[in-house]
Design a protein that fits this description.
The chain is of the alpha/beta class. α1 packs across α8 and α8 crosses α9. The longest helix has 24 residues. The strands form 3 sheets. It has a 6-stranded parallel beta sheet, with helices on both faces. It has a 3-stranded antiparallel beta sheet with strand order 7-8-9, with helices on one face. The protein is built from 19 helices and 11 strands.
């Protein structure tokens, strides 16, 4: 069996997370991805912790298996290399600030003239045009501006001692995956028309599109005292029979789901309890109702028995696990939820596996994360350059060596020297 995207060539100009995740997902599906980096490399190569070979787990997770070409697009010969790759490619992925690649001559209009079949996906904060086109865009700032952060703050209200944003880069991850969806649709359309196209994907638009409760605010709806039944944060944390922490996704406040708890506990008397008659009263006395539930939970011998009982009552629960605990579970073994790639030091990086299984396709095993510019010579030879050409381009700076590892080694040496001086008493 072959992979779904076998034979598809991707030129990945992207960096850090959103664009690299898009490229990595296409590679997971079988595409052949060549990552192009500037002289200073992808900044994520410097994301600690860094192994002795200068490769980070952050970089590996989004780029393992991609071939690495490092060039200086300010040099004419480097542009020639990039053009040869682009002319052969099916997909180009970039997530620079709008206009950056155009400054080097690689805007969509110029590229399409030389490769009209190319699908060119641009990922940015607010789109390639419009009044916010040139603004910096990081996941936390876009999440703040798109209503995501406000929704969280409004929901938790006084429970927060200070405003907090989410710890994960949702906007980057979601927009990268939306880029993949758009690329797959464009590939399908190209099969009919023979022509590629430019895809503009915006983080802000993505965050609005994935907000399941946006309709409430967009239409001025007032849910009143009754929370949204499908609100993921309206459930409660409890302690299991043997000290396990778990979360129940079902709201104990909602008029509809309150009765589910009553049924599960076989406590019809609580329907007449004046503390819990209305949603507003249940909200005001939530801690007391949760205390009743908690005492009932402790009547079960173990989580398995409790889970089975709650499942019958349509009360979905999940234990709070670390990533390591999930990766060690029976489910993870069944799914293949993690995979290992070489760490280039005789060990391995353990990374998240694939979220899909295909009945009629076989997904490729990712290779090791490449060093910056590791495949410079290999790629140049494939494009028709000889030894003399490669040597000349290396000398001119069109081809760039492993700047990141050199910088890491230099900083490491400086830190070692400082530590030694400190140990000697500050000589």
């Amino acid at each position: 069996m072959t992979a779904p995207l076998e034979g598809v060539k991707v030129v990945d100009f992207a960096r850090v997370l959103a664009g690299p995740l898009c490229g990595r997902t296409l590679q997971d599906l079988g595409a052949h991805v060549t990552k192009i980096e500037p002289p200073r490399g992808d900044v994520s190569r410097l994301a600690a912790p860094i192994n002795p070979n200068g490769v980070t787990g952050y970089y590996a997770q989004q780029n393992a298996g991609k071939r690495a070409l490092s060039i200086d697009l300010n040099k004419a010969e480097a542009k020639e290399i990039a053009w040869k790759l682009v002319e052969e490619a099916d997909i180009l992925v970039e997530n620079f600030r709008p206009g950056t690649l155009a400054a080097f001559g690689f805007d969509y209009e110029s590229v399409a003239k030389r490769n009209p079949r190319l699908i060119y996906v641009s990922i940015s904060g607010y789109g390639q045009g419009g009044p916010w086109r040139g603004r910096m865009a990081y996941a936390p700032t876009v999440q703040a501006e798109s209503g995501f952060t406000h929704h969280t703050l409004r929901h938790f209200g006084d429970l927060l001692s200070a405003p907090k944003t989410d710890a994960l880069s949702h906007a980057d991850a979601y927009v990268g995956l939306q880029g993949v969806i758009a690329v797959l649709a464009a590939l399908h359309q190209r099969d009919r028309t023979g022509v590629g196209q430019h895809i503009d994907v915006a983080m802000a638009a993505t965050m609005l599109a994935v907000n399941e409760h946006a309709h409430v605010d967009l239409n001025g709806l007032d849910p009143g005292d009754d929370p949204a039944i499908l609100g993921a944060t309206d459930g409660s944390f409890f302690t299991g029979p043997n000290g396990e922490q778990f979360f129940c996704a079902i709201s104990p406040v909602s008029a509809m789901t309150y009765s589910w708890y009553i049924a599960a506990m076989r406590r019809p008397d609580l329907l007449e309890d004046p503390r819990f008659v209305t949603s507003a009263q249940r909200l005001a006395n939530r801690a007391q109702f949760e205390g009743i539930i908690q005492k009932w939970i402790w009547t079960f011998p173990d989580m398995a028995t409790l889970d089975a009982h709650l499942d019958q009552a349509k009360l979905a629960i999940g234990e709070v696990h670390t990533v390591e605990e999930l990766a060690a579970s029976e489910w993870a073994d069944y799914w293949g939820a993690t995979l290992n790639v070489p760490d280039r030091q005789g060990g391995e990086f353990r990374l998240p596996g694939r979220p899909w299984k295909f009945s009629g396709a076989e997904l490729p095993t990712p290779g090791a994360p490449s060093e910056q510019g590791e495949q410079n010579e290999e790629i140049c030879r494939e494009l028709g350059y000889g030894d003399a050409d490669i040597a000349r381009m290396r000398e001119s700076g069109a081809l760039v060596g492993n700047f990141v590892s050199q910088m890491i080694a230099m900083v490491g040496a400086q830190m070692t020297e400082r530590a030694a001086r400190h140990a000697r008493g500050g000589e």
